TrEMBL record:
The lineage of its organism: Archaea, Methanobacteriati, Methanobacteriota, Stenosarchaea group, Halobacteria. Involved in protein export. This is Protein-export membrane protein SecD. SUPFAM superfamilies: Multidrug efflux transporter AcrB transmembrane domain. Keywords: Cell membrane, Membrane, Protein transport, Translocation, Transmembrane, Transmembrane helix, Transport. Part of the protein translocation apparatus. Forms a complex with SecF.
């Protein structure tokens, strides 16, 4: 028994892969998540767990740039990014520091830069390129040039915000990515199956509610923890910086500033926050609070001081203490004059999440949908037609290949395993798509058809090489001929992978899906299906 398993382990591996693909395709555990109010049948879009992209399900595609201008190669002259952004914003009339951002160590393209050199961007729609250039000149910071568009970090933040909106809405198959035109412009490409154009625009413009509250020890509370109403809301922040790594040591932070102006007779948000921090024990003359907050139970831990809470749409997503210097500044009443402080975290990823949450789901820059942007909508009926035509094309390709193979060999024992092996390869790819939730597009279907063609080509090479010199009278002879064929197949596979790799990694939209599944199909073929076909052919052709 062990010897038979050892001899046929490649075939058994292929069987295991097919069974795994079956589980991924049909098991309810791998079904796409349903949107609120959506039935499971609609979410899975059929009997399988496959998700369909815009081309095959219908929906809306929006391709638009982020509005803004970026000064590249800016010499920060030893100033912090927050100070640089504040200085430039001061030179722009009617523009708040929330609409100006500075990124140290970046040239504006997201590829990095030298120390002390960075980029400054303005995202206010009212600012022209000429006005921004004049503001940069007036601020005194040297720079190389001004270009249209925003920094790479802002594009990444926008993508994360939009993807979060899509995921929160439960829109299976929705995707967002960054693409670049031939002229070098960057665009955000949003695809949401099953949704109309206006629904997608409303989703992109929707804002959540964000507030800073305080949790403090209260013996009268049921769990010993009481929570204030929102001390600060998103409109109370004058500036929300991007996540930054700490200059010394580990961890990261998000620089923010609170509005310190208010109508006569009212307290400014900065003063209200300062007074509340002192009143509830977050800040005192002796130092700051040491926070130990349990996000699961929404309660203060043992020996915990009061905590600042970041609350998004009513849910506490993070908790903070306060360092001693900031606490003493608040206790003395001087902090409200500037309103600047940092929300510190232990990881850069957490800081990025906090920066996005503080923006309340709003994009860091406006999408120019009505200007340079383009949008298209595919109806659900048209998507169903595309699915039908794709299935017909796939079936036709299989029958065409099968017919040619049978005409070539006229031996079922050679041709039939060849067709079954090629189909198993496509079936495994479908299982992978269902497992990772990759939405099927027309380009992906084209990749499947390409895999069928290249796969059968390789199997024909194996059959021809094995049968070219007459009868196979021993296993040794078969193995020798098979190895010669496999070297040819391996070289062809390597060529295909190298040729397709640029399409996979570059921002080329649907072509990425075509390249990914073509490369994956080649790898499955070389590592699993071709060796399995060799074992099957050896058993059928070797004279015993």
């Amino acid at each position: 028994m062990f010897e038979r398993v050892k001899e046929n382990w490649r075939v058994l591996l292929l069987v295991v892969v097919v069974l795994g693909a079956t589980v991924a395709l049909f098991a309810p555990q791998f079904a796409p998540e349903t949107a609120p109010g959506e039935s499971a049948e609609n979410a899975t879009q059929g009997m399988t767990n496959l998700q369909y992209g815009l081309d095959l399900a219908g929906g809306t595609r929006i391709r638009a740039p982020l509005v803004g201008y970026t000064a590249t190669g800016v010499d920060f002259a030893g100033e912090t990014p927050t100070q640089v952004a504040s200085d430039v914003a001061a030179e722009l009339e009617g523009v708040s520091t929330r609409e100006v951002d500075a990124v140290l160590g970046d040239d504006g393209s997201g590829t990095g830069g030298s120390d002390g050199i960075g980029a400054v961007e303005v995202t206010a729609t009212s600012v022209s390129e000429t006005e921004f250039r004049e503001a940069m000149d007036a601020s005194g910071y040297g720079y190389e040039g001004i270009r249209s568009g925003v920094t790479g970090e802002t594009r990444d933040a926008a993508i994360e915000v939009i993807q979060g909106k899509i995921n929160e809405a439960g829109l299976s198959g929705g995707s967002v990515q960054q693409v670049q035109s031939i002229t070098g412009e960057y665009f955000i490409l949003v695809e949401v199956p099953g949704q109309g154009r206006q629904d997608v625009i409303d989703l992109l413009e929707e804002r959540g509610t964000v507030e800073i509250a305080i949790a403090y020890p209260d013996p009268n509370a049921t769990d010993g923890t009481a929570r204030t109403d929102g001390i600060l809301v998103q409109d109370d922040f004058e500036n929300i910086g991007t996540a930054s790594r700490r200059e010394a040591g580990s961890g990261a932070y998000v620089p923010v500033s609170v509005v310190n102006e208010a109508p006569e007779g009212e307290r400014s948000p900065a003063v209200r926050f300062q007074d509340a921090a002192v009143e509830y024990g977050v800040a005192s003359a002796s130092g700051g609070a040491r926070c130990n907050y349990d996000l699961e139970t929404n309660s203060l831990g043992e020996s915990s001081d009061s905590c600042l809470l970041l609350v998004v749409d009513g849910e506490v997503v993070n908790a903070f203490g306060m360092d001693d210097g900031l606490a003493r500044s608040m206790a003395s009443g001087g902090w409200a004059d500037s309103g600047n402080f940092r929300l510190t975290t232990t990881s850069f990823a957490d800081a990025q999440t906090i920066s996005i949450n503080l923006r309340a789901g709003a994009l860091p820059a406006e999408l120019d949908i009505s200007g340079q942007g383009t949008s298209s909508t595919i109806s659900a009926t048209q998507g169903e037609n595309f699915r039908l035509y794709s299935a017909i094309a796939g079936i036709f390709a299989v029958f065409a290949v099968a017919g040619v193979v049978f005409l070539r060999y006229r031996e079922p024992k050679v041709a039939l395993p060849m067709i079954v092996t090629a189909l198993a390869e496509v079936y495994a790819l479908l299982g992978f798509a269902a497992l990772v939730g990759y939405p099927l597009e027309l380009a992906v279907i084209a990749g499947f058809i390409a895999v069928v063609g290249t796969g059968v080509d390789d199997l024909v090479i194996i059959a021809d090489e094995v049968m070219s010199e007459g009868e196979v009278n021993s296993r040794t002879v078969f193995d020798s001929r098979f190895r010669r064929a496999f070297w040819v197949i391996g070289a062809a596979a390597a060529t295909t992978i190298v040729a397709m790799s640029p399409l996979m990694v570059l921002s080329l939209g649907d072509l990425s899906g075509f390249a990914i599944f073509t490369i994956l199909g080649v790898l499955i073929g070389v590592l699993i299906t071709r060796p399995a076909y060799g074992d099957i052919l050896r058993r059928l052709l070797t004279v015993r």
